[in-house]
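Form 7-S
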Amino acid sequence: MTDTTWLFIVCCWIAWVLYWLIMAFPTKRTVERGGLIGYRVVTVVLVIGLIAAGRLLHVSSHSHLWRTTLALGALTDCVVAAGAAFTVWARITLGRNWSAEVTFKQDHELIESGPYALARHPIYTGLIAMALGITPQAVSKRVASGGLLALRRGRVNRLPAWQFYEDTVLPGLKQLISTYPGGALSLTIWATSPSPDLDGTTPAQVLARRGGPSRVLEAARALTPAAW
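Output:
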């Protein structure tokens, strides 16, 4: 992923949030509220689902990272921009009838035109499109920043499973990647092999223990580049 692609995606999300905040004020007066519990339940479920999806993305040993090409970056930008445009179109169509929850507005209107003639929930549809564009880019950016290790196999990058523990990244992983004197493959071999410097346990196992990252980093610093 290029910095330009990532910057474009971030700018799209920032612009979308600012637009939504500004447009939240000029709405019709609320006469009656309803479905507050259901709305909050849906919100909680969505948040939990997003967190679970993010963790699942990290723990899969077969996770594929998309090839970083100019065409892919442009396609991702287009998906995010189209999703943002679709939500804005829906918001403009709703006008002053919009609300963040189920309400009955003064002079309420049932909107069935514009994007509402194409999708039942066009705002959610647009947000899903924006999320689809950002997920693979976020993973690629983490690899590029040294926060994750990726092994290339043909045209596909794979995330070695040893980097993950209890649905999250091992503590001290980024420091280990930057400290280790060898490449990605040799680090994977070293991290998953019993080490005499770590009482016969593997560095990956020690990283998961309390105080383990400092021991593993010390062992990694003792290695010489020539040995790997």
